[in-house]
């Protein structure tokens, strides 16, 4: 059902959602008919529950979900300095980027706040092995295309799945001072990047050379890995 709504609120497109029983209402429902249920974020759900918005408004949004109009479900992180990034069981602090290619391309950047007391600004793109974008973080907002196999958002945890037993990405937010990349398997411009279940981070460069890192602390670095 989440896939049919683009993994987000049919009205506003936010990715953290609840099920709205349109007709009948949840207390009166004897059968949970998918054709009479929609995904709504907490704010939009509250507007309907308080009768500020009509059920007809939900039905109209359900027929043309906001996620499909914009091409993604979205939400945002809450970060403040000092910021700590955990990649598997490796701790990073005051790091500009995780991977820098010899071409100058960077993967997973952390930029300083634009203003005093502002948040550090995270940006990253996560791709599958075919080069298709599966999730993007752009200055602390994150966007998930509607075509992914499955997106699960439960509290601070974001999971992307490619198949029933194939996890692509698991992020866990530690607001306001941290983010964990708990699992990852992706290809970035010819470099394979994987965070394994045991916490090891592994890079495969040009299909051959492997670089592994685990149980490390990296601070005040411009780039954690520099690869061809």
In short:
It is built from 3 helices and 17 strands.
Describe this protein's structure.
The relative contact order is 0.16. The strands form two sheets. The protein has a 15-stranded mixed sheet that branches. It is mostly beta strands. It has two domains: 70 residues, no CATH class; 151 residues, no CATH class.
Features:
228 residues; mainly beta; 2 domains; 15-stranded mixed β-sheet; 50% strand
What's the arrangement of secondary structure elements?
Blueprint: E1 17-21, E2 37-41, H1 42-49, H2 55-63, H3 66-70, E3 72-76, E4 84-87, E5 90-101, E6 106-111, E7 121-127, E8 133-138, E9 141-145, E10 150-154, E11 157-163, E12 166-174, E13 178-188, E14 191-195, E15 201-205, E16 209-213, E17 217-227
Parallel strand pairs: 4-13, 5-17
Antiparallel strand pairs: 1-2, 3-9, 4-5, 5-6, 6-7, 7-8, 8-9, 10-11, 11-12, 12-13, 13-14, 14-15, 15-16
String of helices and strands:
EEHHHEEEEEEEEEEEEEEE
Q: Could you tell me the radius of gyration in angstroms?
A: 20 Å
Helix coverage percent: under 10%
Percentage of residues in strands: over 45%
């Amino acid at each position: 059902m989440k896939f049919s709504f683009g993994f987000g609120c049919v009205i506003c497109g936010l990715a953290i959602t609840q099920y709205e029983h349109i007709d009948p209402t949840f207390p009166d429902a004897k059968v949970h008919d998918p054709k009479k249920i929609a995904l709504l974020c907490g704010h939009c759900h509250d507007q309907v529950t308080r009768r500020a918005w009509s059920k007809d408004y939900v039905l109209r949004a359900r027929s043309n979900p906001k996620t499909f109009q914009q091409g993604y479900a979205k939400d945002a992180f809450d970060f403040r300095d000092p910021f700590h990034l955990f990649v598997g069981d490796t701790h990073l602090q005051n790091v500009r980027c995780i991977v820098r290619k010899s071409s100058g391309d960077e993967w997973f950047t952390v930029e300083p706040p634009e203003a005093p007391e502002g948040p550090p600004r995270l940006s990253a793109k996560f791709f599958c092995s075919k080069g298709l974008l599966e999730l993007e973080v752009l200055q602390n907002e994150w966007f998930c295309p509607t075509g992914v196999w499955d997106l699960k958002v439960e509290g601070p945890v974001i999971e992307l799945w490619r198949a029933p037993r194939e996890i692509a990405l698991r992020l866990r937010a530690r607001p306001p001072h941290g983010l964990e990349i708990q699992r990852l398997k992706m290809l970035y411009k010819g470099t394979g990047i994987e965070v394994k279940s045991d916490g090891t981070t592994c890079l495969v460069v040009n299909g051959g050379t492997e670089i592994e890192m685990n149980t490390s602390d990296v601070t005040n670095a411009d780039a954690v890995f520099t690869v061809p």
